[in-house]
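Weekend entry, working from home. Most of the wet-lab plans are on hold until the incubator is repaired, so I used the time to fold the two sequences that have been sitting in the queue since the last round of cloning. Logging both here for the record. First:
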Amino acid sequence: MFKSQKFFRFKKKSIRVIKIMKKDYKAYLGGSIIMLILISAIFAPLIAPADPYKTNVTRRLEGPSLQNLLGTDSLGRDILSRLIYAARPAVLVSFGGIIISVIIGIILGLLAAYVGGILESIILFIFDVIRAFPPIILILVLLSIIGPSLLSVIVILGVTIMPRYGRVVRAETLSEKEEDFVEAARSLGADNSRIIFKHILPNIFASVLVLSGMDMASMIMWEAGLSFLGLGLQPPLSSWGVMLQESYQYIQTAPLMILWPALAIMLTMLGFSTFAESLRVALNPKLNQEV
């Protein structure tokens, strides 16, 4: 009976959030861009009009044409195909980094708030140490030690922004564990794991979800920037940052070559940011009255 009531409340809240977001143009705009990027990443071999790694130096730096809709790069490769394939590392880095940050942040944040004591002091010290370094310096140092690769970028970005989630979860948990429903569950004999995962975590996850949506855009920017500096994906692999790196030296002779990956990065960041903002408003009872 309790589980059915809990499922009914969850379903009712989900329907309310969806109704609010359906009235917000930001949800449609952001959702459409995100779906386009995800479809491009998943079905890249089916969508791409040409092999993104096939070179043809006789057709290098050509403008848009019927055969190459966005033109060709310095090695004669089809730019549209490379843009489509470049969505894959962007999606992997953004979702992979966020998943690592959320999982570690939730675990450490819950332990710090619920257990307290020396363990909380140690966890907060770890957060402070990571946040003491400027993110760009910390990321560059770790990448120079570990070496540039897609996996290392995902792990390092996830660890770098993890303290944000840990502190949010800790603050929310400190508030939630003093609520009456937690005391009631404890008085009925519920153990700590049940209280944390059945009562506290579901109530704080909305804040984590909104924060992760906003950080998706930052992940896209970080991946492109690190690849541009040569610390992310390495040529000839296709990445928007790699494409920027390869095209900036031709900005005078072939300006469109650098325009397309820049637009892809901008639109992807816009999509995640607008959708996260719409979700934030829908999940906030005070803000969604204005929608």
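Second, folded right after the first finished:
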Amino acid sequence: MTGAAAGGLTHAAPQLLRTAQDGLAVAWRNLIGLRRVPRLLVFSTIQPLVFVLMFRYVFGGVVAPALHGVSYVDFLIPGIFVQTVVFGAMNTAIGLATDMQTGLMERFRSLPMARSAVLVGRTTADLVRNVFVVAMMTGVGFALGFRIHAGVPSFLGGVLLVLAFGFAMSWIFAVVGMAVGDPETAQAAAFPVLAPLVFASAAFVPVNTMPGWLQAFAVHQPVSRTADAVRVLVLGGPAASDVWQALAWDAGIVAVFAPLGVWLYRRAV
């Protein structure tokens, strides 16, 4: 290794450590805000609860015959996990847009902190919130008859996959929030992004029940790939291909939208 390369690595290590420390500080600030407004966390769990009850008892009888013996609640709950973190990612857009509108971003810029720390902190705080919400939805699922068929370690792997996907989706909505700059517009702009991904997917119904033209989209999109991977980890079966495809989507989303979000942050403030 040349002296220049070694020097570059020596310089990069403290920079990464500083970015991580700044990101955790911002994440802690966001979590304190969540603790002070617990209603936000409560309502974050009400929406997926409504979806569970609606699909379980309203649409379950229609969908169940297409599942070939698999209980609909066992099919549904992994999809609800994914739907929950996707809808929850909208909070990233709203939170960042609110910070821009109130001038907090300008105050962050005046501090000696890494430029990416604001976005890293927001997405990390939303990841922690997702841990709580997914845990709550697991309890609701068990109360409605959901059961783990492939063992606890496999189920926990599925939960980690859901959380990774939620973290990736937060970066998409971080870009949305930075691009629009106010919370009302952020909420309005987020829905056209998340609605096709969630409802035209394998989250709630088997893809083979959809029209042929819609199946092409439903199969090749990240919500379906993640829901199928989590479902296999919960119900059992060969999981490697589905899991790797879901992780590839996560990595690709972060690789594209994290730099884009930081670039928008630099421009915005």
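Plan for Monday: verify the second prediction. Residues 7 and 203 are 48 Å apart (CA to CA).
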